[in-house]
Amino acid sequence: MNRAWLLLVCLLLSLGSTAGWSQEARQKIIIDTDIGDDVDDAFALALALKSPEFEILGITTTFGETEVRAKIVDRFLGELGRTDIPVMAGKATAATPMSQRRYVEDGRFTKSSHGDAVEFLLDQIRRQPSQITLIAIGPLINVGAAIDRDAATFRKLKRIVIMGGSVRKGYGDYGYNEHFPPSPEWNILNDVPSAQKLFASGVPLFVMPLDSTQLKLDEVKRAFLFTRGTVVTDQLAILYHLWAQETPTLFDPMAVTFALKPELCPVTPLHIRVDEKGFTREEPGTPNAQVCLQSNPEDFFQFYLRRVGSQN
Fold it and tell me: 259 to each of 108, 263, 310, how far by Cα in Å?
């Protein structure tokens, strides 16, 4: 009997120790998103929320009507019971068409206003220097503003993972069809000066460009997700139908996936120059970014669909 009690105590201590280690091991992340236009941001957010490896410190919105975007995040989080995650809005720019605007028309879970995204980011870095990964999956307006406001603090990020750029392949080059040359990519093109500041910032930078992120969520994969009947997949189905197009390209989820499982998008050190037209040009020189030039779509979707489609 005494031995049995001793074994039970050891087991409980072991479980407590494991739980504590898991908590310490969680990655502290902030997600900067332009959710509301293309639907891939929502698929990226879903993956982050389904990943216990992350401690999500906050979500910030960028580009266009940032308050509307923040309200979309509000409702998404509210439906999932995650209103504990702060949502902040970046500086608004010119209004653009937003297919998922109707998601927040009834005001469900939405707040009337949101705090300053840039100040939130800098404050979190000050509180937890060298511990935070910023995952930026929209135009880099908040990033550039943070560098302008306090470059020294910004450099205390642990790392930045972005979806952005086009190094050796352009839009429409899926690896099995004719080659499309590099082109100015949306997130870079919509704030070239901020992209230039980021690549010159000295912060460890991991780039998921068009070369590795043109991942098509085809009909079979959509049917799998949208029939799972979970809160997460139901919200994705709603936003997908509001998007009102057929086949999403999951550009942004690769940035989140890389932060979780970097082996799914192996990186190459490169020196990248962002030119005035928004091209991300590979040039000789000391590497300023780790760039994923190729991914395996089958491996990506095996991971993504299992994780986001799980019943847990």
Answer: 31, 10, 19
Gap between the Cα atoms of 61 and 79, Å rounded: 18
Neighbours of 237 (CB within 10 A): 16
CA-closest candidate to residue 165, choices 145, 201, 142, 191: 191
Mean pLDDT of 131-136: 98
Residue 152's nearest CA partner among 130, 185, 180 is 130
Annotated domain spans of the chain: 26-308
* pLDDT tens, position by position, 248-293: 999 999 999 999 999 999 999 999 999 999 999 999 999 999 999 9
Superfamily of domain 26-308: Ribonucleoside hydrolase-like (3.90.245.10)
Q: What is the DSSP letter of 176?
A: S
Torsion of CA 250, 255, 260, 261, to 10 degrees: 80
Residues across the chain: 312
Q: Which residues contact 139 (CB under 8 A, 6 or more apart)?
A: 34, 62, 63, 186, 187, 188, 190, 191, 194
**CA–CA separation, 278 vs 289, rounded Å?**
16
- Distance in angstroms (rounded) separating the CA atoms of residues 54 and 156: 19
Question: Could you tell me if 212 and 294 are in contact, meaning their C-beta atoms sit under 8 angstroms apart?
Answer: yes
- Residue appearing with tokens 């499309």: 180
